[in-house]
Design brief:
alpha/beta; seven-stranded mixed sheet; Rossmann fold; EC 2.1.2.2; 35% helix; phosphoribosylglycinamide formyltransferase activity; transferase
Length: 203
């Protein structure tokens, strides 16, 4: 049986693929949120790093995984055949560090969502991910940071914003302590915003 077959969906209308590169705590929150959802299912986890923690998290939830490589993703078909075979209708970037290529932007217009650990448009763009973002926020002496959830387009950390949430930057903060506060916002809001985005874009 094709591990990416869409025949096991139980009739669920929306089939989401999570793209992640790392530990996968946001991916786990999404899988928890949609585990018993009546119309939305996490149907696939896509990862570009062998051994990344998100792969084990997906396995624990019984979600199929797809390990991708750079050449085909950027210069080939971007794995569209696998996504189509899985019946994927929406892409969610949860700590995915590669820029989304044109074939996927064309296949899923307005149906790719990303979460960024800062208040865009500040502290976005190429190289602005993870601890790099939090270090830049602290170096600039900002009094607050937060998260931005947005639709993905052809530019890094660009596209229509769906949601922002803020948290304070405290005296004595380190990139690690600020990251922990930002992660709390991610885990609190990401799944709910994704659900709303999927519903608003129903065909």
């Amino acid at each position: 049986m094709n591990p990416f077959s869409s025949t096991d969906s139980g009739g669920k209308k929306h089939r989401l693929a999570i793209f992640a590169s790392g530990n996968g705590s946001n991916a786990q929150r999404l899988m928890e949120h949609f585990r018993d959802h009546p119309t939305i299912i996490i149907a696939l986890v896509v990862c570009n790093k062998p051994g990344a923690g998100v792969l084990a998290r997906a396995d624990a939830f019984g979600v199929p995984t797809l390990l991708i490589e750079r050449e085909r993703f950027f210069r080939g078909d971007a794995y569209r055949p696998e996504l189509e075979a899985a019946g994927i209708t929406f892409l969610v970037l949860a700590g995915f560090l590669w820029k989304v290529p044109a074939p996927l932007l064309e296949a899923y217009p307005g149906r790719i969502v990303n979460i960024h650990p800062a208040l865009l448009p500040a502290y976005g763009g190429k190289g602005m991910w993870g601890q790099h973002v939090h270090a830049a926020v602290l170096a600039a002496g900002e009094s607050e940071s937060g998260i931005t959830i947005h639709i993905v387009d052809e530019h890094y950390d660009h596209g229509d914003q769906l949601f922002q949430a803020r948290c304070p930057v405290l005296p004595g903060d380190t990139p690690e302590s600020l990251a922990a506060r930002v992660h709390e916002l991610e885990h609190r809001h990401f799944a709910e915003v994704v659900e709303r985005a999927v519903r608003e874009r129903e065909a």
